[in-house]
Description:
Distance between the termini: 57 Å
Oligomer: single chain
Number of helices: 5
Amino acid sequence: MPQFPAFDVMTATCPSRTSLARIANKWTAMVVIALSVGPLRFGDLRTSVDGISAKVLTDTLRDLERDGLVTRHVYGEVPPRVEYELSGLGRTLYTPLRAIALWAEEHFTEVLAARESYDARQ
């Protein structure tokens, strides 16, 4: 079995930083949370993630598929049907991303108050 080096995202040259950057992307978090309900077609996913453009959704899905977080299923039907779903690896990402989303929803009034206080001091 190959030996992998220890990864440390705090090290500038660590390749795991690319994964962290992908996970920290706001669209990644929203797509993963949206797909947690099960497979979705592109249009349904775009509706679920309000405000995302078709191009950004396409790019995000490609990146997530490349990283093994999302699987794309093409069905041989007319018209063609394509569905996206979280892979096993992608499902492991749902819990921490959902926790961050809940934190943002629960603490946003405090964040707004802090912003107003900061802006008033500037």
